[in-house]
Design brief:
The chain is α/β, with parallel strands linked by helices. The chain contains 11 helices and 10 strands.
């Protein structure tokens, strides 16, 4: 028998997991991700980008929270597993974002708050619970990025944003309008949140736009209703024919300096880029186009953001989860840059720069 008393004590994971501590331009030290040179990326707890938990930081400027709820879906289920899938697919993200020329984890304290839970058997109760959870996380001014879950959660988030900022401008990236009335008589589903938001007067109807919309509709009345609510549409075909720069120009002009909420359904991407979703439609935009459009929104008054509808059971080689993780990373960078940050210059566009250079 082995003498257990002679076995050297093994260091705990927390003892090995030294976190990167970085000082921002404002002189404030911030707790960053686990040091990948000490703990391999596949090891350890799966917070987003291996960032600290909210209870490990004295405060947070940007909070990541899951909303793992999908009782509002109309086709393939599984988005309830999306929050943790995106976290797992974020392990390879690194601290410096050259496309935005910022180290977001250094310039803002970012933390993962875990999940906000909604009753899976009662949609209206779940919406109230998720709204209350979002309110609690943002009561001190932190920017909240939520990872769904299905698109029903948008209504809870918009209610919370309206309470804080008044009527909200909205950029909605999606294959679908999500302004339908009911499904099987149910008013609260993943296809109806923005109609309910309009009816509840949460939205600034002069600053609403769908981006990436495509695919068949039930009839022309769908577009008539959508137009009545105040939405403009930049279809996936528009992105193809106009190009990213023109689309960004149009979106910035429509939004102005209003408080802006960004809602992204991962099915805005073509199924070639995001197969792991509940209602896929052919002819979508590419992940490159989506990321470049987001980067073009730098400096707008973004008050919150969400990424929804990742359904990992249909994901192959983590294509969808990886795309989603990079979207959330761009959200973090946009929030860290802040309003009125200017157009900026991506580090990739500077000369000389190489992977051998250090900050």
């Amino acid at each position: 028998m082995t003498d257990q008393t002679n076995i050297p004590a093994q260091p705990s994971f927390s003892a090995q997991a030294e976190r990167v501590i970085a000082t921002g331009a404002d002189g404030v030290e911030r707790i960053g991700p686990i040091n990948a040179a000490q703990v391999p990326r596949w090891a350890g707890l799966g917070t987003f980008a291996r960032l600290p938990r909210l209870d490990e930081t004295p405060n947070a400027d940007i909070i990541i929270a899951g909303m793992p709820w999908d009782s509002g879906v109309s086709y393939r289920p599984g988005a309830r597993f999306g929050s943790n899938h995106v976290r797992e697919c974020s392990r390879l993200l690194r601290p410096f974002n050259p496309a935005a020329n910022i180290s977001p984890f250094k310039e803002a304290q970012v933390a993962d708050a875990g999940d906000i839970i909604g009753n899976p058997f009662n949609i209206e109760e779940a919406l109230a619970q998720m709204e209350a959870g979002a309110q609690e996380l943002t009561k001190d001014g932190a920017k909240l990025i939520t990872i769904g879950g299905d698109h029903t959660i948008a209504l809870a988030n918009l209610r919370n944003m309206h309470r804080q900022h008044g009527k909200i401008a909205l950029l909605h990236f999606d294959a679908h309008l999500d302004t339908w009335d009911t499904y099987f008589g149910a008013e609260y589903t993943h296809g109806t949140p923005f109609r309910r938001a309009f009816e509840e007067e949460l939205l600034d109807t002069d600053a609403l736009c769908h981006v990436g919309t495509r695919g068949p509709l039930y009839g022309t009345e769908d577009l008539d209703d959508d137009r009545r609510f105040g939405f403009g549409i930049v279809s996936s075909a528009d992105v193809y024919y106009l190009g990213v720069q023109k689309v960004v120009e149009l979106l910035r002009k429509r939004i102005g300096n209003r408080p802006l909420y960004i809602s992204i359904d991962i099915d805005v991407l073509d199924p070639a880029h995001a197969p792991g979703t509940g209602t896929p439609e052919a002819g979508g935009i590419t992940s490159r186009e989506l990321l470049e459009i987001l980067r073009g929104l730098r400096g707008l008054n973004i008050v919150g953001s969400e990424l929804v509808e990742v359904s990992p059971a249909y994901d192959h080689a983590e294509l969808t989860g990886i795309a989603a993780a990079h979207v959330v990373y761009e959200f973090i960078s946009l929030h860290a840059l802040g309003a009125n940050a200017g157009t900026g210059k991506p580090a990739y566009g500077e000369a000389p720069i190489s992977y051998g250079d250090k900050e």
